[in-house]
Structures are given as structure tokens and as C-alpha cells.
């Protein structure tokens, strides 16, 4: 019976009684002694629901619907007693790495969040909100408008989800700073070298003027929304202390300069009674500042690889990789797990949230086993240290090639584990069935297993890397991979077999849900990208830097077909803005393949 309910309940007991009939009486009462958002559901001749609050009643009704929906021969009288481990269970979708979802896609996402009992949604924004007077920044991005946000806020509110505004206010400002009008706001207006690579300006200077400018933007972003929370970001401030704030940083230290500015951005909202979330990656390196965090500010600790993968990756880091990570401010000592990442906050007894990831970005079909390990580590750390919040992140680094359904399996796993952290092991096994039964309503029962199997392909490769799939990076950075990132021929053959089998199985899917046909097309495109990447990594191009003419032409034709297919499937769920930019990220590969094809032809 445990498999019949999602999220898995904390306690379910079979009763030696008769299950309810179609006309069974339902008795509902409130009990303030129950845990927050909790409920007690007696599913028998008479259905009895006792709930703590409105959320508890909603979740009890959800469980009741799932029990009633079981086949007649599977009906069983049960007692369900349930409440969440995390009071706030959030999902964050990146809408600033080229892919801005349509309203239809956002509705699909909200349906999934309701199923998983998430009660918070954030759309991560850098430049994709239609701020008035700043049209040059978002003109080509098909941004979210105030009307879009108001519509989404209404949709979320009606279904028990709080839409929390999320705007990065410190780092990740490269899309703004590329314009001359905003460049004076940069910490350093000149490109900076990080471990041999040049990066354009991306960090705001920590000035009062910039803080006031940000307040104006946040006023506009929050205007259509009900929430009394806000996420101001402030992660990865790579250039901080290299330009305008250099002298001050040398006097006070980078940590104090960082926190002073973050406090200035947060202060107007704290004064209004808002709760202010911010990323804790910078602050976590300065334990001496823990007592300065104002009441109402919530550090959010993020980490996106599992302890198992991290240990393997750290053991194989090249000098170049280590230099690259250190140049970007990564403290390698904080990477093993969430306990290490949050050590300074834990030691100072500062409340914090945990933020694992879906593991889908910088991949085509996800890294599901890694995500499961990462999410489980986050949930267990959060429960151990009484974290109020769990925020599952779905980023879109380098073009957001993965369509939304690739995030479904980790999103549902995160939902179940943030509700009931002890369910992790059982839930991982149930994901295909949950996807087929409750998301896609797949008569053939294949879509769930396809999503899980393709999500495991990267994890099964005998070459590992942090925060990305070698398949994706091989296409994005052809000819620029470390030798230990190249899987063996045997591993690639196994990956190809798994992907080909999944593609064949996908053709037999029979989803009844409205989104089913769209999801099938999006998943098929993701598999075809991964098959292309598998073949590319097995070629001589990434191993010796050469490629025969005929093989180069075949790869070039396949790449052109994939880019055309990407245009079609992108527009099924995403707005056109950002599409050209996303697809152009693979131009270097196209140019490299073209050079080999044409050079071979000239030499023939």
C-alpha cells in the first residue's frame, strides 16, 4: 500500500475493516494539535479526515483522491498519518539562460508542483523580466511581464503555492553590463582573467547607488505578487574586490564588503516585514561574520553534486581544473557534502535552507543518480539541523537545452524526500510508476521508465565531471575536454545501447495526459542529442583532434538536423526569445566539423 500514495506518507497502517464504498460518508474536523500541514485520514466505511490547517486539509484530500483512484481489487482500509519534514518546500526554475517558458509550460509545472506538495515556486531572473525603462536588456528575450506574473501568482495561490520573486542583485549581471548604459555600475568594467579564461563584467559594484537602483527593480518585480518573501540571489560575485571596491576590500576583507552590500539590498524589504533569501556560497567562507546576519535574512546553502560523485571528481582533478575552480572562488573543502558546505552556519547556529539541484543542466537527459544522491544529502542535512526550507533548483547553464520533462523525475524525488526524508530509498524505486500513473497517465507504462533510464546514462559512464555531463560538454566544448572526461569505448557503447532502447520504447508510449504528446517529442529530441554526443565522444575528433572527411560530413549533417529539431521542440514549451542564442552555443562545433569536411574535400 505504501506505493499507492505520493508523496510517501510518514505512517500508513492497514485496517481490518471494509474500505469505503462510492457513497461513503466523509467526516471532516480540524485538530490544532496536529503538526503544521499535517493530517490524519481514516479510509474505511466512513472516511474521517482530521487536519491541522488549510494545507493539511488540501493534502488529506489529495491522498483521498489517490486512494479512491486505485483499482477495485486493490482497495484496502487504511489509516494515514502524515506531516512534512520541511515547512517550506520550494522549486526554483532558471528562466534566464535563454529558455523562458510559455504560460502553458508554467501551468504544466504548477500541476507537477501540486502533485509533489511543493508550496513555493521561484523563477530565477537575471534579465528576463520586462522592467520598464530597461527594454534594451530584455527586448530579445521574450521576458515575463507583470501580466504574466500576476497570472502565475493567481494560479499558484489558488493551489496552495507561494510565488516568491527571485532576482539576482549582485553577481550574474553580464546581460546588463554588456550595455554601455549599465557598464558604469560594474565592479570592474574590464574583462577579467580567471585561470586563463577571460570573462566579461558580471558583478555589480557594492555601492549605495547600485543598492538603490536594485530597490527600484525589486519594487517593480514584486508589484504583481502576494508574497512577503523575496530571493535576492547574490551568488558568484567573481570580480568583487578587483575594481571599484578593491581598496575597501583590502581594508575590511571581502566578506564584510559582500555582506554590507547584501544588507543594503535587503534592508528595505526587512523593514516591510519580508523574509529575504540569499545564496550562502560567499558568506559561508567567513565564519566570523555569522553574528552579523540580520533577523529575517535566510542564507540558502547550495550544492549540486552528490557526495559520491564529488569524492570521485575531486580525486581526479587536473591542475587546470583545480585552478579554474579556485579562480571562481570555490572552496574545495566545502564541496564533499551539505554538512561541510554549511559548516560555518551550523557552528554559529544560524538557520539556513538547503538547495540541491535536479542535475539536469549542462546535460541533455539529466544526471538522475547524481541528483538523487545530492537531494538525499540535502534533505538529511536539513532535517538534522532543523532547516525550515528546502529549495530544489533547476538551472539552465549554457543554453538550457534540457526540456522541462527531463526535470520531472528529480523534481518528484525532491518533493517526496522534502516531505518525508526517510522515504528516499523506496521513492527512488517508485519513480517510473509515479511518473506513468500520476503525471503522464501512460497506458503503455513506458514514459516513466524511459525518463529514468535516460537520466541514468551519464551516471553510468566511466568518466565523471562536476556539475555537467561529459556528453553535453563534449558537444559544447569539442576538443577541449580533459582526458579523464572521455568515456571508454565500452562505456559509450553501453550508453548508446541504453539510449537507442529508450528511443524505441518511447515510440510505444500512450500518454492520456494533455501534455503527453508534447513531452514525448521533447524527450525524443533530448535522446537524439545524447546519441549524437555519444558518437562524437567516441570519434577521433575529441581523442586525437582529427576526423575523416566522410565522418565529418555525417556529423555535420546530424548537427544541422538536431539544431532544426531543437527549434521545433523549443517552441512547444518555450518562448522564441533566447532560442537563437541557445542554438548558437554549438556553432564552434559546427565550424570545427565544417573545417574538417572542407579541408578533406580540398585535399582529395
TrEMBL record:
InterPro entries for this protein: Beta_hexosaminidase_sua/sub, GH, Glyco_hydro_20_cat, Hex-like_dom2, HEX_bac_N, HEXDC-like
Question: Which residues are in coiled coils?
Answer: none
- Pfam families, per the entry: Glyco_hydro_20, Glyco_hydro_20b
Give the region (Disordered) as residue ranges.
1-32
Catalytic residues per the record? 236 (proton donor)
Q: Which residues form the Glycoside hydrolase family 20 catalytic domain?
A: 86-304
The GO molecular function terms of this record are:
beta-N-acetylhexosaminidase activity
Q: Where is the composition biased (Pro residues)?
A: 1-10
Domain called Beta-hexosaminidase bacterial type N-terminal: residue spans:
22-83
Looking at the record's lineage, which domain of life comes first?
Answer: Bacteria
**Which keywords does the record carry?**
Glycosidase, Hydrolase
Query: GO terms for biological process?
Result: carbohydrate metabolic process
The entry sums up its family as follows: Belongs to the glycosyl hydrolase 20 family.
What protein name applies here?
Answer: Family 20 glycosylhydrolase
- Please give the organism: Nesterenkonia sedimenti
Amino acid at each position: 500500500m505504501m506505493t499507492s500514495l505520493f508523496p510517501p506518507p510518514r505512517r500508513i497502517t492497514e485496517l481490518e475493516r471494509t474500505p469505503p464504498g462510492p457513497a461513503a460518508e466523509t467526516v471532516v474536523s480540524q485538530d490544532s494539535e496536529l503538526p503544521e500541514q499535517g493530517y490524519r485520514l481514516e479510509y474505511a466505511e466512513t472516511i474521517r479526515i482530521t487536519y491541522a490547517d488549510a494545507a493539511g486539509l488540501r493534502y488529506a484530500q489529495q491522498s483521498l483522491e489517490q486512494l479512491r483512484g486505485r483499482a477495485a481489487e486493490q482497495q484496502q482500509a487504511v489509516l494515514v498519518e502524515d506531516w512534512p519534514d520541511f515547512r517550506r518546500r520550494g522549486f526554483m526554475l532558471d528562466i534566464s539562460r535563454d529558455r523562458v517558458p510559455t504560460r502553458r509550460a508554467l501551468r504544466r509545472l504548477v500541476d507537477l508542483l501540486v502533485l509533489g506538495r511543493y508550496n513555493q515556486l521561484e523563477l530565477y531572473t537575471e534579465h528576463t523580466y520586462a522592467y520598464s525603462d530597461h527594454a534594451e536588456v530584455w527586448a530579445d528575450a521574450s521576458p515575463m511581464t507583470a501580466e504574466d506574473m500576476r497570472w502565475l501568482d493567481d494560479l499558484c495561490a489558488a493551489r496552495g503555492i507561494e510565488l516568491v520573486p527571485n532576482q539576482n542583485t549582485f553577481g550574474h549581471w553580464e546581460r546588463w553590463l554588456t550595455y554601455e548604459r549599465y557598464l558604469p555600475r560594474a565592479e570592474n568594467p574590464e574583462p577579467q582573467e580567471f585561470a586563463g579564461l577571460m570573462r566579461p563584467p558580471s558583478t555589480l559594484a557594492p555601492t549605495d547607488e547600485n543598492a538603490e537602483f536594485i530597490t527600484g527593480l525589486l519594487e517593480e518585480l514584486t508589484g504583481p505578487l502576494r508574497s512577503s518573501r523575496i530571493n535576492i540571489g547574490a551568488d558568484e560575485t567573481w570580480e568583487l574586490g578587483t575594481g571599484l571596491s578593491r581598496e575597501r576590500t583590502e581594508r575590511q576583507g571581502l566578506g564584510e564588503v559582500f555582506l554590507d552590500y547584501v544588507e543594503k539590498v535587503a534592508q528595505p524589504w526587512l523593514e516591510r516585514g519580508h523574509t529575504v533569501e540569499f545564496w550562502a556560497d560567499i558568506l559561508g567562507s567567513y565564519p566570523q561574520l555569522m553574528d552579523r546576519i540580520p533577523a529575517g535574512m535566510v542564507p540558502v546553502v547550495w550544492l549540486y553534486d552528490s557526495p559520491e560523485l564529488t569524492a570521485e571528481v575531486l580525486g581526479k582533478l587536473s591542475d587546470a581544473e583545480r585552478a579554474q575552480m579556485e579562480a571562481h572562488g570555490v572552496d574545495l573543502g566545502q564541496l564533499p557534502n551539505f554538512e561541510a558546505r554549511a559548516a560555518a552556519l551550523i557552528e554559529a547556529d544560524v538557520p539556513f535552507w538547503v538547495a540541491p539541484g535536479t542535475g539536469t543542466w549542462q546535460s541533455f537527459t539529466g544526471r538522475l543518480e547524481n541528483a538523487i544522491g545530492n537531494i538525499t544529502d540535502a534533505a538529511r542535512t536539513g532535517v538534522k539541523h532543523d532547516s525550515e526550507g528546502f529549495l530544489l533548483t533547476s538551472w539552465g547553464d549554457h543554453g538550457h537545452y534540457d526540456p522541462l520533462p527531463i526535470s520531472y523525475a528529480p523534481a518528484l524525488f525532491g518533493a517526496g524526500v522534502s516531505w518525508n526524508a526517510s522515504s528516499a530509498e523506496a521513492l527512488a524505486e517508485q519513480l517510473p510508476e509515479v511518473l506513468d500513473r500520476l503525471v503522464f497517465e501512460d497506458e503503455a507504462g513506458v514514459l516513466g521508465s524511459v525518463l529514468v533510464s535516460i537520466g541514468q546514462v551519464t551516471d553510468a559512464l566511466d568518466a565523471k565531471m562536476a556539475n555537467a555531463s561529459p556528453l553535453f560538454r563534449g558537444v559544447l566544448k569539442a576538443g577541449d575536454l580533459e582526458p579523464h572526461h572521455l568515456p571508454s569505448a565500452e562505456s559509450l557503447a553501453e550508453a548508446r545501447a541504453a539510449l537507442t532502447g529508450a528511443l524505441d520504447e518511447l515510440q510505444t508510449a500512450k500518454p492520456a495526459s494533455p501534455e503527453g504528446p508534447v513531452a514525448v517529442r521533447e524527450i525524443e529530441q533530448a535522446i537524439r542529442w545524447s546519441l549524437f554526443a555519444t558518437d562524437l565522444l567516441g570519434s577521433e575528433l575529441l581523442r586525437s583532434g582529427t576526423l575523416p572527411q566522410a565522418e565529418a560530413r555525417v556529423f555535420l549533417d546530424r548537427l544541422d538536423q538536431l539544431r532544426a529539431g531543437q527549434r521545433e521542440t523549443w517552441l512547444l514549451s518555450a518562448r522564441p526569445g533566447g532560442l537563437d542564442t541557445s542554438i548558437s552555443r554549438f556553432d564552434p562545433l559546427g565550424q570545427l566539423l565544417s573545417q574538417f569536411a572542407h579541408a578533406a574535400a580540398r585535399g582529395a
